[in-house]
Specification:
445 residues, mainly beta, Porin, 2 helices, globular
C-alpha cells in the first residue's frame, strides 16, 4: 500500500510551462509537458528524475529526487499540480551522517486568465514585480488587473516550512548547511503563522508589458529550456529606454513575527546602451530598525554571429542604516547568492556577479559566478557573557559546466571555492577555506 500511495502522490507532481531550473529544487519538467492522449490535448503531464553526488568541505553529499506534473488548461483556466519525493544523505570524515526521505508539493493552484485580469489561488511559486523583496512559494492569492500601460497587483498568503523555498521539501539546504547557528529565515509550520502581503503599481511604456519568469534563478544567467534554439538579431540598441517602473507596499505578519515592519519603495527597469539596469530603493519602517534597503542589478546579453550567446550579470544589495541597530528584516526575498553559502538578507550588504557563455551547436554552456559578503558580519551563535564573535566575510566562487544530451538529459558539473566561518567548538568560529563540487543529472520524460 505504501508503494501505491507514493506512486499516486508522485503522479500529482506539476510545473508551469515557463519553468526554469532552480538551485533549491532543480527541474526542467515544465518544458516537457505532453498530452495524456491526443484526443484530449488539454490534459498534459511530465516526469523528471534528478540525482546529485559531490563534496562540500569535509562532507560527502548525495541525493535523488523524482517529480511529476499535471496541467489541465483551457482558454482561460488552468489547474496545475506538481510534486515529488526525495532522498538524501550527508556524511563527513568523522563518521557523522544525516539522511532522510520526504515527499511534498511544489505547486498546486488554480489560474484564471481574463482579458485584463489574472487570478491565481493556491500554492504557487510567486515572485513580486520588484527585483528584490519577494521570491517564495506562497499558499494564498495573487491578483493582477491591467489598465492600458498600468497594472495593479495584490498578493497575500502564508509561507509554511513544508513548501517554502528554504523549507523541508525541495531545498538543498540540508546538504549545504555548513554554517550552523544561523537562522536562515523565519518560516511557520502552520498556516497563518508567517504571512505576507504586497501591493504594486506598475507602469509599462510599451503596449505589451514584458513578462517575468517567476521561476527564474536570481543570478540573471539561467536561460529557459529553449536556450539552444536559434536566435535572431535584435534591432538597433537605443541609448535609453524605460521598460518598467513601479511602486510597492509590503509587510510580513503573523503570530511568529517578532518585529512588525512595513516596506515601501520604488523600482524600475531601464535599458541603457543595450545594458539592462534594475535599480530599487525600499524604506524599512520598524521600531529600532529604520533603514533603506537598496538593490542594483545590471545585465547584458550578447548574441554572436555564430548564434552563441554570452550573458553578463552583476548585482549589489545593501542597507543604509537610519537607526544604528538596523538590519534587514525581510524573510522571503530568497536571493540565494551562491550555490552553497546562499547569501541573503541576513548577510547584507552582498555582491554577486557572473558570466555565462552558451554554445547552441554543442547544446552546452559554461558559467562563472561569485557571491561576496562586503560588510559587517553578525547573526552567529555566541555566549551572552562574551562579546559576539568576530568572523571573516563569506565568499563563494563557482564554475558550472552544462551539457544537454538529446531533449531529455541534462548534466551539470559544479566546481567552486568557499570562504566561510566554520564552527569548531561551542560559540567558536574560525574562517575556513575549502573547494567544493558536485555532479548533477536531470532526466525528463
Amino acid at each position: 500500500m505504501q508503494k501505491i500511495r507514493t506512486a499516486l502522490l508522485s503522479a500529482l507532481l506539476l510545473s508551469t510551462t515557463s519553468l526554469f531550473a532552480q538551485w533549491e529544487c532543480p527541474s526542467r519538467i515544465g518544458g516537457n509537458l505532453k498530452p495524456f492522449t491526443n484526443s484530449f490535448p488539454n490534459l498534459t503531464w511530465a516526469g523528471e528524475l534528478t540525482t546529485t553526488a559531490g563534496a562540500t568541505g569535509d562532507y560527502a553529499i548525495g541525493n535523488i529526487m523524482g517529480f511529476a506534473a499535471m496541467d489541465l488548461s483551457f482558454d482561460k483556466f488552468t489547474l496545475y499540480v506538481e510534486g515529488g519525493a526525495k532522498s538524501w544523505k550527508r556524511i563527513n570524515a568523522n563518521g557523522y551522517h544525516n539522511e532522510g526521505h520526504n515527499f511534498g508539493f511544489r505547486e498546486a493552484f488554480f489560474q484564471y486568465r481574463g482579458t485584463n485580469q489574472n487570478l491565481n489561488i493556491g500554492l504557487r511559486s510567486t515572485q513580486g514585480d520588484d527585483p528584490y523583496l519577494l521570491n517564495e512559494r506562497v499558499l494564498g492569492l495573487d491578483y493582477k488587473q491591467t489598465l492600458g500601460n498600468w497594472n495593479f497587483r495584490a498578493i497575500t498568503g502564508s509561507v509554511m516550512n513544508r513548501f517554502a523555498r528554504n523549507g523541508t521539501f525541495c531545498t538543498l539546504g540540508y546538504l549545504y548547511n555548513i554554517v550552523p547557528g544561523r537562522e536562515r529565515q523565519l518560516i511557520g509550520r502552520q498556516f497563518g503563522q508567517t504571512n505576507l502581503a504586497m501591493l504594486t503599481l506598475n507602469y509599462h511604456p510599451g503596449s505589451k508589458p514584458s513578462t517575468t519568469d517567476e521561476f527564474a534563478s536570481s543570478d540573471g544567467l539561467n536561460a529557459p529550456t529553449n536556450e539552444f534554439a536559434s536566435n535572431t538579431k535584435k534591432s538597433a540598441i537605443s541609448l535609453l529606454k524605460l521598460i518598467n517602473a513601479g511602486a510597492l507596499a509590503y509587510t510580513e505578519y503573523g503570530a511568529l513575527e517578532p518585529i512588525k515592519a512595513l516596506y515601501s519603495g520604488l523600482y524600475a527597469e531601464l535599458e541603457v546602451a543595450g545594458i539592462t539596469i534594475k535599480p530599487e530603493i525600499i524604506l524599512q519602517s520598524a521600531t529600532g530598525n529604520q533603514g533603506l534597503l537598496w538593490n542594483l542589478t545590471a545585465q547584458k546579453q550578447i548574441t554572436w554571429s555564430n548564434q552563441q550567446q554570452t550573458k553578463i550579470f552583476g548585482r549589489f544589495i545593501g542597507i543604509i542604516k537610519i537607526d544604528s541597530t538596523a538590519h534587514a528584516l525581510n524573510s522571503f526575498s530568497n536571493v540565494f547568492a551562491g550555490e552553497v553559502l546562499r547569501l541573503d538578507a541576513i548577510e547584507l550588504p552582498i555582491f554577486q556577479c557572473g558570466i555565462k557563455h552558451s554554445i547552441p551547436s554543442l547544446a552546452a554552456s559554461i558559467k562563472l559566478q561569485a557571491a561576496l559578503q562586503t560588510g559587517e558580519t553578525n547573526g552567529y551563535l555566541h555566549n551572552i557573557m562574551l562579546p559576539p564573535p568576530t568572523v571573516g566575510r563569506m565568499k563563494e566562487y563557482d564554475m558550472v559546466i552544462s551539457k544537454n544530451f538529446g531533449d531529455h538529459l541534462l548534466v551539470n558539473a559544479h566546481f567552486g571555492y568557499l570562504v566561510y566561518p566554520k564552527m569548531t567548538d561551542a560559540y567558536v568560529y574560525e574562517l575556513n577555506r575549502t573547494p567544493w563540487g558536485k555532479i548533477e543529472m536531470r532526466l525528463t520524460f
